[in-house]
């Protein structure tokens, strides 16, 4: 899939009139056609030429886990035979009301991951490649077709490190937020990163008011380096300096994502440190009890321990949420379905 300017340049090379741009964009993003052949008001020669180089559906559906009224996980196959996952998360009635039409899609940005977070299934089979902008955007289109639901919130928290695929991420964001594209508001989009300091500063320069989430998972270098190798290159102090830069450019609160792992980062002393970290950048905290991953040694804390951890944060004046159950029973930790499929155990 192409941005408006890319499509305009392409059609100019084909000696096509400028109004073809709007025609094609309307077919792709509004009418949601599956093939160039379906664009009946385009010349047949143009359709044939474009279909050879720009497939409209670079992903195909393999399977879905979960039910319509809860979290659903979709395993999708790429044209080169590799797999990615995306997760559709319905609104929590306790937060948004029983009749809320809020649907959040957790989008992948890479096949695998090179950053090797010790608790994550995405990198267990290593890194294969970046997803193209078309493959990123197609996750949204395909899930809307499969689910019959309108996706109105996006989180780049699926497989991969979004900021390590910076160019394709930015192109996808342009398509997703544009009025000629999917038209999802930038404030409804969150990009999550393990803490790539230079790219956080580059992302802060974008005009779109997207939101930022940091996979922190440890309030100090000793704890964070134990489970996140990226911390050795970009330690906590450098990361928080970059977040100050972000705050100077953007007008939304940063979210600190914190997976609670028993015996690693879930002690009350960790909670007290996290209070100070969050206060320093006026951040909110999203606590996520660890989703068990087959083959990894980490253990999920008890619900009571999670609630006690959260209480320290709220008593310290930090806005904190705790997700006790969202997809724990459908291999919802990023990369599990893809890993099983590629290993032939699914």
Question: What do these coordinates show?
Answer:
Helix 5 crosses helix 6 (166-177). The protein is elongated and about 65 Å long. The strands form two sheets. A ten-stranded mixed beta sheet has the order 1-2-3-4-7-8-9-10-11-12, sandwiched between helices. A two-stranded antiparallel sheet has the order 5-6. It has two domains: 1-56, DNA polymerase, domain 1, CATH 1.10.150.530; 57-343, Alpha-Beta Barrel (TIM Barrel). The longest helix has 15 residues, at 133-147. It is an alpha/beta fold and 346 residues long. It has 13 helices and twelve strands.
Helices and strands, with pairings:
Elements: H1 4-13, H2 19-30, H3 44-53, E1 59-65, E2 72-78, E3 83-90, H4 93-96, E4 103-106, E5 110-112, E6 127-130, H5 133-147, E7 153-156, H6 166-177, E8 189-193, H7 197-203, E9 211-215, H8 221-227, H9 230-233, H10 236-249, E10 255-260, H11 268-281, E11 284-289, H12 303-315, E12 320-322, H13 336-343
Parallel strand pairs: 4-7, 7-8, 8-9, 9-10, 10-11, 11-12
Antiparallel strand pairs: 1-2, 2-3, 3-4, 5-6
Helix pairs in contact: 5-6, 7-10, 11-12
CATH T-level fold name of the largest domain: TIM Barrel
Outline the low-pLDDT stretches.
93-99
Provide the residue-averaged pLDDT.
90
Q: Strands across the major sheet, in which order?
A: 1-2-3-4-7-8-9-10-11-12
Annotated CATH homologous superfamily of the largest domain: Aldolase class I
CATH top level class name of the largest domain: Alpha Beta
Number of helices: 13
- Termini separation comes to 31 Å
| Record field, number of beta strands | 12
Overall geometric form? elongated
- Biggest sheet character: 10 strands, mixed
Q: How many distinct folded domains?
A: 2
> What sequence of helices (H) and strands (E) makes up the elements?
HHHEEEHEEEHEHEHEHHHEHEHEH
């Amino acid at each position: 899939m192409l941005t408006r300017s890319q499509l305009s340049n392409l059609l100019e090379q084909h000696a096509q009139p400028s109004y073809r741009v709007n025609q094609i964009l309307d077919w792709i993003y509004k009418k949601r056609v599956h093939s160039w052949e379906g664009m009946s008001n385009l010349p047949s020669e143009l359709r044939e030429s474009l279909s050879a180089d720009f497939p409209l559906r670079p992903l195909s559906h393999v399977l879905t886990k979960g039910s319509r009224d809860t979290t659903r996980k979709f395993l999708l196959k790429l044209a080169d035979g590799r797999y990615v996952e995306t997760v559709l998360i319905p609104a929590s009635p306790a937060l948004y009301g029983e009749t809320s039409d809020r649907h959040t899609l957790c989008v992948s940005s890479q096949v695998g991951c090179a950053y090797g977070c010790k608790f994550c299934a995405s990198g267990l089979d290593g890194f294969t490649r970046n997803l193209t902008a078309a493959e990123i955007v197609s996750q949204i289109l395909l899930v809307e077709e499969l689910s019959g639901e309108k996706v109105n919130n996006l989180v780049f928290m699926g497989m991969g490190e979004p900021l390590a695929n910076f160019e394709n991420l930015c192109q996808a964001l342009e398509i997703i937020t544009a009025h000629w594209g999917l038209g999802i508001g930038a404030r409804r989009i969150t990009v999550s990163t393990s803490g790539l300091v230079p790219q956080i500063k580059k992302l802060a320069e974008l005009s779109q008011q997207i939101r930022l989430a940091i996979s922190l998972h440890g309030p100090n270098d000793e704890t964070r380096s134990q489970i996140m190798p990226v911390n050795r290159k970009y330690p906590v102090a450098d990361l928080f300096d970059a977040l100050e830069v972000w705050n100077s450019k953007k007008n939304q609160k940063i979210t600190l994502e914190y997976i609670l792992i028993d015996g690693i980062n879930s002690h009350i002393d960790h909670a007290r440190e996290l209070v100070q970290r969050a206060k320093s950048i006026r951040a909110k905290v999203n606590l996520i009890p660890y989703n068990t991953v087959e083959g990894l040694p980490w253990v999920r804390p008890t619900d009571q321990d999670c609630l006690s951890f959260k209480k320290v944060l709220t008593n310290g004046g930090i806005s904190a949420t705790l997700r006790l159950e969202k997809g724990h029973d459908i291999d919802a930790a990023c990369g599990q379905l893809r890993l099983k499929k590629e290993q032939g155990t699914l």
